[in-house]
Amino acid sequence: MTYVVTENCIACKYMDCVEVCPVDCFYEGENTLVIHPDECIDCGVCEPECPADAIRPDTEPEMDRWVEFNRKYAEMWPVITERGAPPANADAMDGVPNKLQTHFSPEPGQKETS
């Protein structure tokens, strides 16, 4: 089992999940996050931290497409290890339907500077 980020993260990107991840398997896009399914250790600590309820175990119905979505973008985007500020309209975007078609950006997020 692994955990994956689903559609409701798009345009919400709260990032509460990032700081609790013990293996740094979150990757940042311009307006969403993903979890690398091959790096996730299935601990589940991220799931209850997500205010948008966008993190799910891959054992739930119809999660195969989200596993592949997360894998694809985790291999393209930079890793994120610290929580950033969510978009100003994150609360308004929480629960908006069809965000993958209407709001998703394939662009990477900010690279971390260390």
UniProtKB/TrEMBL annotation:
Cofactor: [3Fe-4S] cluster; [4Fe-4S] cluster
Domain 4Fe-4S ferredoxin-type, residue spans: 1-30, 31-60
InterPro entries, alphabetized: 4Fe4S_Fe-S-bd, 4Fe4S_Fe_S_CS, 7Fe_ferredoxin, Fd_C, FdxA, RnfB_subfamily
PROSITE patterns hit by this protein: 4FE4S_FER_1, 4FE4S_FER_2
Residues covered by region (Disordered): 84-114
Keyword Transmembrane helix carried by entry: no
Pfam families to which the protein is assigned, alphabetical: DUF3470 (PF11953), Fer4 (PF00037)
Keywords attached to this entry: 3Fe-4S, 4Fe-4S, Electron transport, Iron, Iron-sulfur, Metal-binding, Repeat, Transport
Origin: domain of life: Bacteria
Gene3D superfamilies named in the record: 3.30.70.20
Keyword Metal-binding applies: yes
Known function: Ferredoxins are iron-sulfur proteins that transfer electrons in a wide variety of metabolic reactions.
Name assigned to this protein: Ferredoxin
Species this chain originates from: Paracoccus spongiarum
